[in-house]
């Protein structure tokens, strides 16, 4: 067997060995690599993308994730070699979108601190991932290609012969309950709580589950997620590129009726076709889904005194229009040591020019133990004050400042956005999960001021 054959057979990418997950799926390691993967030896054309006849009678199809003319360092596209081109489908029909929306023009506005109790799992049987998406809020417009939305998904049924793609933008999925078995055009991923995945604009996928499942989803319109710059941190740290995993190619040659659902300009459309859309036998390129295990995050923190800003916990960022100002960041609050001397260690009191949505994957959040629960959420809008509750303030102001583990057995996260996010009517009323007593957690903060005692 030649070296090239061995490389193909083993799905090697850029010389990096394929990596096997606990679930048995294979992945290629790295962030934004030029990956190459094939299920059959020689399925990837040699030396060109678009031969007169592709190997094995496949069709070549390019999926563009950036404008053709985007700068080389940000240009993203993938070449797919598939049994049939994606265009072979019946006409699109508009579908009922339920509470999955991208329209924030006529929704209630409130600056108040919002906290949601855990969102209900589906009451009905056979709620699949797409049916179970409920939009909490967002801002902007997918038609003008700038904005974001935050969703909750709850489901209990696999998508079977249904696939979905989002023509409006990328999806960052954060499972909180239940493992997601995701089939994409590029291959399969298993994504469990404490892992995340990103499925980019246009990529078809379906989600299988084994029981009741719940999680959070961040949708961005107009740009893709990248790793944050590290500045003085140096070449290593935070989320390291090698810990991102992209699936190896996988295909099925199935000739039964399938339906592909698209979200386009905020509305859902379905199109039937007489074969599986997951028929990509080989692909190469740098526009492909990936997953990441949050346990691999290399934490940087203050080791002498005071706080670093939570930006040191940024896993992924989707750049906005202003230099250094994200459209959206995905930030985690990972298990770590707190060692600062003469410092109030919990998060500081804060008013921000960014919107902060928080979710909890498991455990307790350090600044509000007990009230902020896994599967729930909170939103602190632009310039709305927030910070530790009264119990946390009193405890941390008097605690012995020994080195302590913080956030052990817990994982919370933040979707932070430079947009002024609006909450949907579902989020504020219909879901009936808003904690009307949230404001009270700060009312017992004592007045400690004494002009005669420093
Ligand atoms: Fe904050």
Task: Annotate the secondary structure layout.
Layout: H1 3-9, E1 19-20, E2 26-29, E3 35-38, E4 59-64, E5 77-82, E6 93-95, E7 114-116, E8 133-141, E9 146-155, E10 162-166, E11 170-177, E12 180-184, E13 187-191, E14 195-199, E15 205-208, E16 213-221, E17 244-247, E18 258-264, E19 267-273, E20 280-285, E21 290-293, E22 314-319, E23 326-333, E24 336-338, E25 355-362, E26 377-380, H2 390-398, E27 404-406, E28 411-417, E29 422-423, H3 425-430
Parallel strand pairs: 10-18
Antiparallel strand pairs: 1-2, 2-17, 3-20, 4-5, 5-20, 6-19, 7-26, 8-9, 8-29, 9-16, 11-14, 11-16, 12-13, 12-15, 14-21, 17-21, 18-19, 22-23, 23-28, 24-27, 25-26, 25-28
The structure holds fe (ii) ion (FE2).
Description:
By secondary structure, the chain is mainly beta. The chain has two domains: 3-294, Jelly Rolls; 297-436, Jelly Rolls (Sandwich), CATH 2.60.120.10. The chain has three helices and 29 strands. The strands form six sheets. A ten-stranded antiparallel β-sheet has the order 1-2-17-21-14-11-16-9-8-29. A hairpin with a 2-residue loop joins β18 and β19 (267-273). The chain is globular and about 85 Å long. The model is unreliable at 1-15 (pLDDT under 50). Residues 350, 352, 356, 380, 386 line the site of fe (ii) ion (FE2).
